[in-house]
Automatic annotation (TrEMBL), chains A, B:
Residues 14-147 form the Nudix hydrolase domain. It comes from the Bacteria. This is Nudix hydrolase domain-containing protein. It comes from Christiangramia gaetbulicola. InterPro entries: NUDIX_hydrolase-like_dom_sf (IPR015797), NUDIX_hydrolase_dom (IPR000086), WH-like_DNA-bd_sf (IPR036388), WH_DNA-bd_sf (IPR036390), WHD_NrtR (IPR054105).
DNA sequence: ATAATAAACGTAAATAATACATTTATTGTT
DNA sequence: AACAATAAATGTATTATTTACGTTTATTAT
């Protein structure tokens, strides 16, 4: 959390702009966060969010996507700006403003090996290690925003595979809200929104009977939005 | 909106960080925005949000407060971060990332003269002029966020004088949501939240009977939040 | 054929949101 | 002193939404 040798400190005569990525994933009923172990000084060996300076010739959004690509191999990930962190002493080494962006990824999609090669690790959201600088604060803020957004936008779907069952969707919302939901009411509510398309397939990995798979229908969602409806789950 | 002479263009070899302020006020039943006419090149004479580069030795939040102080004379204004704007070509002159912050001010408090001296002007929110760069986009985003926030947080109160009547509060919400609300239901709802303190004074400026003045009770609001209640008006 | 299991379904009660009409306090006018 | 005018203040019935809760069903393994 702090630099422990003074010689790392340098005179702050230049403004740096960085972006840090808060990467959420959902796996086995748990909401997880991707963090990585710094391999360079300063703060080598400590846990940190994945970030980078924003280059002069790239859009801010692009910088986030680049960081993700470089660290996970994933392209075109759902990503959204969270907030800028700009306390003058937030980084003892540089005068650096960091724009945090959070990403939701389909954890089944990606290559676990690849991520581990980059020194990254998935932590359960309620068992995070101490992160450098203000990164724990960033995660806290991101989780808050995820909760809020999940209430009104269907971003939860970004965390699930394309085909998913209703019990899976419920587990995701339970993980995000960190409370249990009633299965009957949840199903009723989510189906009443008319944005789920029932498929002819079942997922039988969790029960003998099997649960029908659904996929998200963006068109209907757009209609729903235009009709002024609040997409509010749970 | 565009630079019209090429010699203004300079090589982008440095990253600048600016902050732009979206300043909302409420006056005579209308939601208003404070904009000002640029007095320096480039884009001299065009309407613009009020902004500044963030200095190396100041917090980002402080930069916003400084800008407000310099342009309106107001201190300790309610201000909240909106979003960072970071397209690589958003400013044709510099490679500049701007962190937009929006402010809510009690329009009766401040000195109209002072503001006018700074070349600023209050525009009604739905009759804005064309602003430079991506400033209209910023305003659009800020208004959206104001609408959302006003639904769950009592930030609306920041726009009113300390003492206000319920009809005034309703007019404010109508201006923010840009739709009419039912007076009986509004009153019922807002009073049921138990965050308004009725005073023994009346405001008689708009009717012979006069309307009772209220003030906002932050303590009760805190309790309300802790009890998990949604502060949802209208 | 049976046991076991998660998935799927429905209804009643409680709560919240909406729609809508009348009375009241006060002032200025006659 | 009575009256007209005006916005403020109040209540109730209807509808929609949310919550609480128990039973049946499809499938597989034994």
């Amino acid at each position: 959390m702090t630099y422990n040798s003074k010689d790392l400190y340098q005179v702050k005569e230049k403004m740096y702009v960085a972006t840090d990525c808060i990467i959420f994933g959902f796996h086995e009923g748990k909401l997880k966060l991707l963090v990585f172990k710094r391999r360079v000084e300063p703060l080598k060996g400590e846990w940190s969010l994945i970030g980078s300076f924003v280059r002069l010739d790239e859009d801010l959004e692009y910088a986030g996507q680049r960081v993700l690509r470089e660290t996970t191999g994933l392209e075109n990930v759902f990503m959204q700006q969270l907030k800028s962190y700009g306390k003058k002493d937030r980084d003892p080494g540089y005068r650096c403003i960091s724009i945090a962006q959070y990403a939701l990824i389909r954890i089944d999609d990606y290559d676990e090996e690849l991520v581990e090669q980059h020194g990254a690790h998935w932590y359960e959201i309620d068992h995070l290690p101490l992160l450098i600088l203000d990164h724990n604060e960033m995660v806290h803020d991101a989780l808050l925003q995820l909760k809020q957004n999940a209430r009104y936008k269907p971003i939860g779907f970004e965390l699930l595979p394309e085909k998913f069952t209703i019990p899976q969707l419920q587990a995701l919302y339970e993980a995000i809200y960190q409370r249990e939901l009633d299965a009957r009411n949840f199903r009723k509510k989510v189906l009443s929104l008319n944005v789920l398309e029932k498929l002819d397939e079942k997922d039988k990995s969790t029960s003998k009977r099997g649960a029908f798979l659904y996929k998200f229908n963006y068109e209907n969602y757009q209609k729903l939005l235009k009709s002024g409806y609040n997409f509010e789950i749970a």
